[in-house]
Structure to design on (828 residues):
């Protein structure tokens, strides 16, 4: 039996035990993992060093090495996050709804775990802890498939987690790592409907698309963000510029940062120059349409492709539009249904924008950077869903659950 | 441009209009369709006759011909169902939750349509009306892909629907039929993520699996039902037998009918003979394990395959088990996570069964035949989901919706 099948089977058995685990048991396990991570941090850092050295030898980029790197502070952050997780409400067993039918049947809908979750991710060892703990809290078993470039770190972390699980009377197979990181094995995972209930890819757009395009196991998709700020004719200029700058520059590499500003033409006549200068002061390179090129200096002429590009850096595309209608049409054509903002003092424009823009989150007079499980107050985040089924937008713990109907009768037949 | 792409594009445009349609507008359209179906029933029946004749010439089975057949009563039933649908609450625009963050951001989660739904189904023209009306009520545009064997009926029905839509000021492209029924075109639909938000297959297990296995568009899966009744040692014999008979024979061809009875050995010692005779009196053919073969007459020896078979007819597999634990393990191994019942007077056994059986619906002392949107009181049913994401169990109107977060601020940045 391959490692994948063997571990998948064990995960399924573990999932049945986890589904019955009490909140107290699960929280105890999370605390134990937190403690164990700190206790064994030297071991984890040593193993992480092996990955870092191999990465350097293989010419891994600085930014990838930084993602791969663990240190005392990062391990402390993971340990702290585990304690915060114990304080969150356990969604499992929650009553969603209950009612009685005229024939006397008592129907209840209760939250249950999904079962076994396959997590496919790139070279960030912190995802190993993050994914394991979120799955554990929600009573799911997890089968982790990380990058080969982080294999020593991941093996070390999972060893530490399993060590803690052993002490907490929960099956150690609740958290398992696939040590076989061949591509073919990942492909096998995509089709393992018999044992896996859900796949969650975490990483770049390419990884996610590979999983979405090839999986028959249902996928929790976290997508790309080609987000916009639209400034309408009534927008407060200072607020508009401040929000655009924040949404672009506060952390340009993340999916809820904006890639485009659309400016209504009358507002543009008065304030476009100011907006462009403000962006350029923050070292943002601007791709602009003709009007933008006429107004600003050093503007790169925007090509059609620019409207659909997720720059993920200090680059932005700026376009002048006629009105809110054109802005909405543009966003619905080029956006990725993630986060879209309108800066406006017009109730009418805001309502139209909120109704007609097809996105997980629509903002009025606020930065798109708030699309985040913690900023929303969920206390945890699995990712940000840009799909429409199951969960849309920032996903908290309930996104890792399903429901079950329980029906109590006294002999009812049809 | 192919018919598929052309209609998919139009559907996307129509979906944007439908998303804004008021409940009143949508209900008016549903009433208009109801009326139009009756008005043009002669035309529909004439076209249906063409399909029936072609079916007969091609040697279609009696049961398939019956599914294909329309008559005055069936058209009246469709028309009545449309009126009932107007009386149901409109989920679109409903506030799921709202809260305010410490920074003053006001977050609301509201129900929105999914967008464009691709419906792939077999030779039941009533699905054409059913699917169109459920999508319309929930503000979704639908692209219908029915069977070539029902093409005349479907074309006629969609013509009538579009006629009614025209009069109600909603885009006629809200409901479109693909007239190209080639297999390659359906396969193209599976990958049409650009225009389709969801695919819903309706029909046999084979059709559903083809869609699930080959689609990159998210699928709302309605699955097969290999359902069980487990009779434990405390079960009331009359109730147990009555429920088993009802769950098997009241309508054997549907997914919530049972295919298996598991009997605890002590109960079996006293009542198995009675159960077997009662089933045989209803012309049910019994596949049984050794104990069952010893107890009853004319029992077909059960092979391993029988435990996983959806007979969908007057056939059943019966097994004697040690206890509730063995019953649960058997169900979790062979079941399809649909509907599972325990007949028992033991609170402990019931709780264990409810917690440990992995199914969309678990029953205590009631027939599995109640797993149904109407029996649950939803007033409508899209199908019964056996998947764990998005919706599980009978799906009412909310299953055809997604949500959107609206965030209102006054200049908040991070």
């Amino acid at each position: 039996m391959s490692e994948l099948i063997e571990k998948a089977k064990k995960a399924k058995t573990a999932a049945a035990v986890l589904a019955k685990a009490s909140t107290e048991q699960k929280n105890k396990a999370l605390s134990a993992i937190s403690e164990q991570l700190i206790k064994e941090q030297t071991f984890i850092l040593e193993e992480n060093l092996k990955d870092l050295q191999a990465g350097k030898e293989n010419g891994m980029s600085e930014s990838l090495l930084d993602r791969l790197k663990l240190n005392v502070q990062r391990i402390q952050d993971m340990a702290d996050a585990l304690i915060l997780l114990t304080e969150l409400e356990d969604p499992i067993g929650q009553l969603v709804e209950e009612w009685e039918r005229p024939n006397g049947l008592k129907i209840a809908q209760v939250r249950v775990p999904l079962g076994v979750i396959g997590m496919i991710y790139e070279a960030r060892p912190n995802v190993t802890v993050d994914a394991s703990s979120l799955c554990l809290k929600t009573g799911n078993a997890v089968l982790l498939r990380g990058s080969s470039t982080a294999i020593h770190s991941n093996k070390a972390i999972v060893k530490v987690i399993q060590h803690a699980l052993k002490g907490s009377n929960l099956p150690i197979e609740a958290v398992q790592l696939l040590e076989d990181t061949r591509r073919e094995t990942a492909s096998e995972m995509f089709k393992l409907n018999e044992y896996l209930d859900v796949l969650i890819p975490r990483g770049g757009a390419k990884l996610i698309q590979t999983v979405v395009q090839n999986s028959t196991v249902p996928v929790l998709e976290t997508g790309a963000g080609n987000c916009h700020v639209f400034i309408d004719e009534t927008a407060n200029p200072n607020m508009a510029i401040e929000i655009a700058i924040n949404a672009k520059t506060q952390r340009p590499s993340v999916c809820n940062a904006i890639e485009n500003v659309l400016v209504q033409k009358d507002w543009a006549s008065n304030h476009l120059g100011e907006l462009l200068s403000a962006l350029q002061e923050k070292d943002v390179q601007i791709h602009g349409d003709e009007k933008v090129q006429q107004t600003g200096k050093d503007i790169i002429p925007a090509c059609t492709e620019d409207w659909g590009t997720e720059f993920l850096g200090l680059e932005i595309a700026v376009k002048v539009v006629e009105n809110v209608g054109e802005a909405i049409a543009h966003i619905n054509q080029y956006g990725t249904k993630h986060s879209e903002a309108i800066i406006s003092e017009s109730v009418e424009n805001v309502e139209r924008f909120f109704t007609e823009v097809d996105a997980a989150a629509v903002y009025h007079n606020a930065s798109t950077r708030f699309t985040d499980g913690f900023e929303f107050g969920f206390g945890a985040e699995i990712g940000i869903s840009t799909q429409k089924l199951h969960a849309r937008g920032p996903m908290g713990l309930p996104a890792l659950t399903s429901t079950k109907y329980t029906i109590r009768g006294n002999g009812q037949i049809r």
Notes: The longest strand of chain A covers residues 401-412.
